[in-house]
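We treat protein structure as text, and this decision shapes the records that our systems exchange. We quote a single record here, exactly as it is kept in our systems:
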Amino acid sequence: MNDCLTDWGLGADKILMIVSDNGSNMIKAIKLLKEMNEDEIDECSDDDEEEQTETEMADENEDLMELPREVRYLRMPCMAHTLQLVIKKAYVQHYDHVLTKARRLVKLLRKSSDAVQKLLTKCGKILITDNSTRWNSTYYMINRLMDVKLCANEVLADMKIDSLTVAEWSKLEEMKNLLQPFATHTDILQTDALSLSYVIPSVLDLECHLQQFNDARSLTNAMRGDLRQRFAPLLEPVSHNFNPLPAAACLLDPNVGTLLLAPHMRPLLDAAKLFITAQVCLYCLEVQFLLNVCRKLI
């Protein structure tokens, strides 16, 4: 990673945050990269002690400049991947039995060419299987099965195979409604065109969805706790590894910035303001330094 950044001419002053998946090797690599950068900064500081007069103006803004230095090379977990880890609780803790039966029926109906043709004739659709490496695939499997429920039951009856019970179909419907917002936000957040400013609004929207979901309260409470814990570095300024960048991006986006103006969001708003002010001051100091150098050259 360091070699690639060097080849592209990307120094520490150009890198505030690195987004990666949740693999332990990636977490360790980014941690080592951050430590390497901090060591280089310390060495440069020792070598340049005699030139401190050039940066005396920075002393007055030391507190403001402290935050940008601390956030260099901060790691942010991939939003879409992390959301998938949250919804795994639903698969394992609450819907495992009905999911197992649904998967079995889907495989039976997809395995039979006659059943596939009958479904296509009756409703123009075929069933979808889920895959552990494909995000939201379980939701899409359930959603398609619910869409063709009547036709699927007819085909299963022709094949003399028992379908799901009424209670199990109801359970699948409940699961579909629970996972639908997660699928929507995952699809939105994994696009290349989306801004960082939508990260916090997405997390808060999902938290609100879980709070208002009336079914499976024990499950949704557990998912809410897991969601808040995983995204604490983005939502809670008191977190030891707090990352102010998403909050700052949210505040600067006129489409979602008002979200941080709510009274209960005040700590996050203050952290975003501090970060933005520090960045502006740091930029102004760099410009002033360049102007001083230019004056000496002239």
About this structure: Residues 95-189 form one domain. The CA atoms of residues 69 and 257 lie 25 Å apart. The radius of gyration is 26 Å.
